[in-house]
Design brief:
This protein has helices at about 1-20, 35-60, 75-85, 100-125; strands spanning about 65-70, 95. By secondary structure, it is mainly alpha-helical. Strands 1-2 form a two-stranded antiparallel ribbon. The longest helix has 27 residues, at about 35-60. The N and C termini lie far apart (about 55 Å).
Length: about 130
């Protein structure tokens, strides 16, 4: 199951990147209608949410021993909040990575979130052009 979740995370990044950034017609400003912009923004939010849910699963089940849980009780809600907090570099004191694997996992999520929130968001929203 862990392999499947990693595969889904990677395919989520690849699919969003390919269809919203790489393809030439996706960067054509003539194609930016208001409805298309809204759909792109919604799919961006869905991709980020899916990524965070996938990492919450990884924190909670296969890599649970790589984290220190408050009161030594790993809970689904703690892993979910930790995943969302980690994706925006916020501190979540109830879950902390304690092994190198845990640290690498949190850094991987942070890098993926950075890619979604900066590079892809910058390309997903239409740029305004001055007509002066």
């Amino acid at each position: 199951m862990t392999f499947l979740v990693w595969y889904l995370i990677i395919s989520n990044i690849y699919t969003y990147f390919y269809y919203h950034i790489w393809k030439e017609e996706s960067l054509n400003p003539d194609n930016f209608s208001i409805d298309r912009t809204r759909r792109r923004f919604i799919t961006l939010l869905l991709s980020i949410g899916f990524s965070n849910l996938s990492f919450a699963y990884l924190f909670r089940l296969p890599y649970v021993s790589d984290f220190k849980w408050s009161q030594d009780i790993p809970l689904n809600i703690k892993s979910l909040w930790f995943s969302y907090a980690n994706s925006i570099t916020a501190d979540y004191e109830y879950v902390k990575p304690i092994t190198e694997t845990g640290i690498n996992l949190t850094i991987t999520q942070l890098i993926i979130s950075f890619v979604f929130l900066t590079i892809i968001l910058g390309k997903s929203l239409p740029q305004t052009t001055s007509t002066e």
